[in-house]
Amino acid sequence: MLFIELFIQGLIQGSTYAIIAVGLTLIYGLLRVLHVAHAGLFTLAAYLGVTVTNQFGSLSLGIVVATLTSGIVGVVIYRLVYEPILNKPPYVALIASIGLYIAMEELFRLIFGPFGLSFSSAPLQNVVVIFGIHLRACQIITVITNVVLLGILAWIAQKTRVGIGWRATVDDPEMSASFGIDPIRVRYLVFFVGSALAAVAGVLVALLTNLVEPTMGAVPSYKSLAIIVLGGLGNVFGTLIASLALGVIEAFGTIYIGDFLDRDAIAFAFLVVVLMIKPTGLFKSR
Q1: Which end of the chain is more exposed for a tag (fewer CB within 10 A), N or C?
Q2: Residue 7 half-sphere exposure, CB side, CA atoms within 13 Å?
Q3: Rounded to an integer, what distance in angstroms lies between the CA atom of residue 278 and that of residue 87?
Q4: Where do transmembrane segments lie in this chain (predicted)?
Q5: What is the rounded CA–CA span in Å between residue 208 and residue 203?
Q6: pLDDT digits (tens, 9 = 90+) for 47-83
């Protein structure tokens, strides 16, 4: 039973990593930019989700406001920060992204205060027993939400004209443009979708921990950057597998080697070992 519980906890954590990292993978696959400021949107959404829920008593409204706002802010970041420097060396965009994330952290500290913010009455905290395994409702909702979002994203990418244009732009921007696909609109769409995914993850993590703080995006963002390398840069399927594997490794490692390493150290140790063995990642880069 312990094995099953740990595995489930790992999948819950891994699915959250997945929707953060998939957004990063989409952006990297299109622009070859490591979007560190993605973590700032994750944190922004968590603050908005908690604030709106506390103010109006509706978690659904909080999620909608957080998702739309973060998506729009993501597009603005692309337009104002990345678009003017796309013809520069890749490290220029990386430095800009890191600086932007640090600025966002400090802005959150000024607006919301240096201390944590919590739900006044945390929703979905009731315990549900499934086959003898005790789970909070928010954990179940987290997994369901993440699976549904990733399923919808896969369907859009494979079955719709928008998704086909999206994939074509990633594979060959010049050829896709010659067929009438507007690369600028595709970039805006990718930033909106990636930022919206980060937003959902931020609100779900706030639900799971009942705590939002200015630096909460730091560790998930570093792990997500490592995950997209581990899964193969730009490879969405590889990112999903790497995210779930990391979540499961963390869950088991916390029990069996937690006396020596904490959860974050276990995760990074696993990533370092794998990348030492296979530096290009588990799957082929796109």
Answers
A1: N
A2: 5
A3: 31
A4: 6-26, 33-50, 56-78, 85-104, 140-157, 188-212, 224-245, 265-283
A5: 9
A6: 999 999 999 989 999 999 999 999 999 999 999 999 9
